Amino acid sequence: MDEEGIGAEIFALVADIYPICRSITGNGVRETLRRLGRHIPLTVHEVPTGTQVFDWTIPREWNIRDAYIADDSGRHVVDFRDHTLHVVNYSTPVHVRMPLAQLRQHIFTLPDQPDLIPYRTSYYEERWGFCMAHNALMALPDGIYEARIDATLQDGSLTYGEFLHPGDSDEEFLFSAHVCHPSLANDNCAGLALLTRLAARLAPLRTRYSYRFLFAPGTIGAITWLARNELVASRIRHGLVLSCVGDSGGPSYKRSRQGDAAIDRAMAHLLHHAPGTPTVTDFVPYGYDERQFCSPGFNLPVGLFQRSRFGSFPEYHTSGDNLSFVRPEHLASSYRTITAAIDIIENDQRLRNVLPKCEPQLGRRGLYAAIGGSQAGPSRSMAMLWTLNFADGHHSLLDIAERAGLPFSEIAEAASILEIHGLLVPASG
Amino acid sequence: MDEEGIGAEIFALVADIYPICRSITGNGVRETLRRLGRHIPLTVHEVPTGTQVFDWTIPREWNIRDAYIADDSGRHVVDFRDHTLHVVNYSTPVHVRMPLAQLRQHIFTLPDQPDLIPYRTSYYEERWGFCMAHNALMALPDGIYEARIDATLQDGSLTYGEFLHPGDSDEEFLFSAHVCHPSLANDNCAGLALLTRLAARLAPLRTRYSYRFLFAPGTIGAITWLARNELVASRIRHGLVLSCVGDSGGPSYKRSRQGDAAIDRAMAHLLHHAPGTPTVTDFVPYGYDERQFCSPGFNLPVGLFQRSRFGSFPEYHTSGDNLSFVRPEHLASSYRTITAAIDIIENDQRLRNVLPKCEPQLGRRGLYAAIGGSQAGPSRSMAMLWTLNFADGHHSLLDIAERAGLPFSEIAEAASILEIHGLLVPASG
Amino acid sequence: MDEEGIGAEIFALVADIYPICRSITGNGVRETLRRLGRHIPLTVHEVPTGTQVFDWTIPREWNIRDAYIADDSGRHVVDFRDHTLHVVNYSTPVHVRMPLAQLRQHIFTLPDQPDLIPYRTSYYEERWGFCMAHNALMALPDGIYEARIDATLQDGSLTYGEFLHPGDSDEEFLFSAHVCHPSLANDNCAGLALLTRLAARLAPLRTRYSYRFLFAPGTIGAITWLARNELVASRIRHGLVLSCVGDSGGPSYKRSRQGDAAIDRAMAHLLHHAPGTPTVTDFVPYGYDERQFCSPGFNLPVGLFQRSRFGSFPEYHTSGDNLSFVRPEHLASSYRTITAAIDIIENDQRLRNVLPKCEPQLGRRGLYAAIGGSQAGPSRSMAMLWTLNFADGHHSLLDIAERAGLPFSEIAEAASILEIHGLLVPASG
Question: DUF4910 domain location, by residue (chains A, B, C) (predicted)?
């Protein structure tokens, strides 16, 4: 897939959706999906409040118009219009006047990061609250303050979007990004934007697998999708959850619960050869929606791709996760890793060397250095030698790349040349 | 089991039996078993000299009344009444006068540890000898000395004791400690005392397994027991040999010959989470009576638990292994490790998550933090998430604890809470 | 096998064949085989030019009488008689006069090792060229030079030699060394000389396996032998390719493609206990003739033994690989490793402890220290305890040696003593 300018393209989409106040339900999600839908034909689903999805129930819909804390003079000392994080997500409506000492029980700050606004939610317990910089709170004089949250929490629906790119097979590769976080750039405007751009570039291509892109609220959204798509889920052969794909850390990959699924091997292979400080970790039942895809009743081969791992960077879940924190080059790097994973999943295969007894004479085919004896050895020929030796019908190209310690792309290219010269055939052939 | 004051209790029993001169046969063993028998109803067995036990024969019985080396003036320069180690264990009786130069051929010292008395034995070759501090020997003037060992070596019997706590099943957990060493506190008054106190506390409890406590002389005692109890041995599902459980080192565990028996996994798990400098080593065919239990014709799942490993501390097999060398807190720590192992063996089981599709909603059951978004994550909920995700009927609680990197006790507690809430059932249910 | 003076013997043979100008065909190979044949009854095979061997064709035969570069005054500034490396191996005949600037396109040097002559070949593309020290080239004044290579490249044959030592079984242990390199002492006069001396000492012995020694040109020679001996190849149970066995590095072993063949385990075991800086590496499809033996259509259990690994030492494929670079003591050390490998392959077996229940009483058989209690433990008895415990019919002696971390020779010796005492019998007995 064409990668020219992809970083800037993804970044522009991140910036487009960053200001929206999203939550697990409500108009923020709808507006976000509308903007993603400018780039791909997204199907938007609405699931009514009260619908049972496995052990859960679709909650009421939350929408917010305005919120502020005002001092005696009417000055807004905290204003939702400045930052969507200022309100505890899913706060019930409130309009009160109370002394600061009392109001502080509804205010969340980060004393250790006193200039940042924290991100807090209260989805499943009715509360109201504000979030603000600790230093700003400390600067407030005592007195009576007005606190207002002009929000509604009422029956409505949960919204999610999906796009399916049909391939030659109805076996699927699932990509999923959570759409419920408000103004947090890396977590997860980056994932939403990257997948949208990826889907757009993938759309015109013919592929072996079908590709599904899911943009749903975290936890309840993934649970809702799974509850409504058990049959589809049974066709998922590979999957990746994406979040935090725009910062300078990582890259990192968390294996699926299966641990040795094709996607696990492909991602581990790619990260082994990746620049930066790649880490591959085993599945843990905490994180993003891989928790649901990898619940024991589904146990799908779905891993998590990130740059910095969630919770590992100080900007995580604070106002520090803003448009300065994600960079086009990191978005582009994440994009390339994902497309390389698609390359492996699409192209890995078992081939068979048709001249398995001794080496074929590569030299007379122009595939081997003519002057022998130098210490360097035929470094450019090594990928061919590995491929010929292990193309025995049992080892796939990824097996060979892992055995050789070479990137899959080099083995795949060598295999392609050898196939052209008639030295390899499909293993079943 | 109640652990209050357990260290002091065990230490008191160590002190009680420390002065006795034990050997592989004789009254020292009988007196020791009599004192242990004050705390538990011990069955004492006597096996006559000459009895064939596999490749071995029960030796004659050794008893000693007195022993000394006296100088010209009649002064006792070495006296068995000062320390039981002064006589080579199993020495034949002797009463001679000879020059020091000649007598020295019968005297063992430790030139590198010149203030300590070594422990030496000669069970299977008839000899006599004395052990003493090297500095004390060096201080002796030349001259004629009287050496007397007032001992008997004659037909009698080999003595061992055992206590069986019956459980719901006749499958057994064997605990074994050698009872043949004279005044060596860590090796093995500590093991004898710990197991006696453990047996006493276990006695009133209902257990899944039956628990057998064996106090027998090293090597020949274990061989004798196995020769007389082949059918019982076939019911041993778990076993631990204990020695050196009272010093400040370790803890350490030596795996059974099987290497991956349940007891091996349980002990490795506990030591992984233990304070100190825990070490887990593979089976080697040298050490204590696990040598016999793990001989290829039995190959029982019996490991060795110690604090410092035998031979690894300078006090080993010297008069330095005395009542100052073992401490109540180390005895208590060893006790807690053993009872934790029993907890694992008794309680490990496979459970099944009855809501395996996606996560159950822990929040509405009061099992999950209500305010989301903080970096810390639901650390107290992690044990529940691990248990729910891997309680698939295939993973046992210990499997889950190992996978999660959490102590078994935390997983077992989480499982218990989840079972109460109806989220888990026994895998067979 | 007697090892007295073996290093000096092998070195003398290295020195004898070092000056000969070998190539993949021609009289250099014949003369080399003639000299090796003074020590063992070598069968020499001639395979005509044009013969098809798998994907390859036997090339024309190359012979060289003389070669030089002469300056205006007729002085030979480069002379083949000084060093066989001065001519690019397999150069076509030429006799020209040309300016130095033009001639330099046919001259190979090593700018980074300016005093050494490189080794270069052009087997499968017709070229001519000279090799010389970079400093010597730099010292040449401009001017017209005469370049002459008095060589022939015409139909003839490819030559290889082999020697078969028949054993009790027609299953074979193959030893192979390439015979095509000109004056390079370590690579591979050393391998040729070591195997010749080994074959001579093995010849009078009765062995379980048959031993085949193959001295063939690299690549094309091995391919030729395999093409003509497919049935023999199917009987190869173990094999080693030898090269670079005389320098001070290593030792090193490269596993066969199978990776866990008996020879792989034997060599890894020996190198684990070897002095120096032993390394064991996995198979890679580049190196010496193990490439052909381990091609997927054969997949024979043939590894590569070397001291320094090819390409890893600065003298590799240069005039620095001369008679000063190989030493008798290193040749002797390599020889001992190979004979130790033969010992393992010949003698590894599964035995059965006839008294598997508890330990046999070694003491009454005089096999155990009589005085007990010392810290050292029965270090001399450990090999016996390991062997008795694991001689269960499932573990071979090599298995036991690996489990015990002891050299095979110690376990084999212990097993021999225990067999004499009737405690072990063959597992099938």
Answer: 11-348
Q: Give, in degrees to the nearest 5, the angle at Cα A179 between B373 and B371.
A: 20
C277's CB contacts (< 8 A; 6+ apart) are C249, C250
Q: Are residues A363 and C118, on separate chains, in Cβ contact within 8 Å?
A: no
- Give yes or no for a cis peptide into C251 (omega within 30° of 0): yes
CA A57, CA A35: separation in Å to the nearest integer?
28
Q: What are phi and psi of C316, to 5 degrees?
A: -55, 130
- Tokens encoding A366: 């122009």
C-alpha to C-alpha distances, C335 to A30, B327, C34, C328, C351, nearest whole angstrom:
78, 57, 22, 10, 29
- Across the range C50-67, mean pLDDT stands at 97
Judged by CB atoms closer than 8 Å, whether chains meet at C389 and B121 is answered as: no
**Residue-wise pLDDT tens digits, B266-283:** 999 999 999 999 999 999
C6 in Cβ contact with C197 (< 8 Å): yes
CB contact under 8 A, C370 and B219: no
| B376 pLDDT above the threshold of 60 | no
Q: Is the pLDDT of residue A193 over 70?
A: yes
* Residues ≥6 apart with Cβ < 8 Å to A260: none
Fill in the DSSP letter of residue B92.
P
ipTM exceeding the 0.85 mark: yes
Q: Which residues of chain A make contact with C184, given a CB cutoff of 8 A? A: none
Domains of chain C (ranges; CATH) run 6-59+157-347 (3.40.630.10), 63-153 (3.50.30.90), 350-426 (1.10.10.10)
State how far Cα A45 lies from the chain centre.
20
Quote the CA–CA distance of B121 and C199 in Å, as a whole number: 53
Q: Which two tokens stand for residue C31?
A: 């003369």
Instruction: Give the largest CA-CA distance in chain A.
Output: 91
> pLDDT per residue over B96-113, tens digit each?
999 999 999 999 999 999
> Is residue C378 over pLDDT 70?
no
CA distance B204 to chain C (A): 34
Tell me whether residues A120 and B372 touch, CB distance under 8 A.
yes
- Between CA A233 and CA A225 the distance in angstroms is 9
Structure tokens at C261: 């063949």
**B298:C371 CB<8 A:** no
Query: For the residues of B285-331, what is the DSSP string, one character each?
Result: S-SSTHHHHTSTTT---EEEEESSPTTSSTTTTBTTSSTTT--HHHH
Peptide bond preceding B141: is omega within 30 degrees of 0, i.e. cis?
Answer: no
DSSP secondary structure string for all residues of C314-348: TTTTBTTSSTTT--HHHHHHHHHHHHHHHHHHHH-
Asked if residue A83 belongs to a known ligand binding site, the reply is: no
Burial (CB < 10 A; 0-12, 13-18, 19+), residue A403, is middle
Is B165 annotated as contributing to ligand binding?
no
Give the distance from residue C163's alpha carbon to the nearest chain A alpha carbon, in angstroms: 22
pLDDT above 70 as % of chain B: 97
Question: With the C-alpha atoms ordered C366, C371, C373, C376, is the resulting torsion angle positive or negative?
Answer: negative
Which has the closest alpha carbon to C252: C269, C273, C285, C277? C277
Quote the tokens at residue C15: 């020195």
Given a cut of 90, is residue B145 above it in pLDDT? yes
Element (H, E) at C108: strand C107-108
The span from the CA of B412 to the CA of B398, in Å, is 9
- CA-nearest residue of chain A to C311? A375
Confidence of residue A1 (pLDDT cuts 50, 70, 90): low
**What whole-number distance in Å separates Cα of residue B165 and Cα of residue B211?**
5
The predicted-structure confidence for A70-121, as pLDDT tens digits, reads as follows 999 999 999 999 999 999 999 999 999 999 999 999 999 999 999 999 999 9
* Contacts for A126 with CB less than 8 Å, ≥ 6 apart: A92, A153
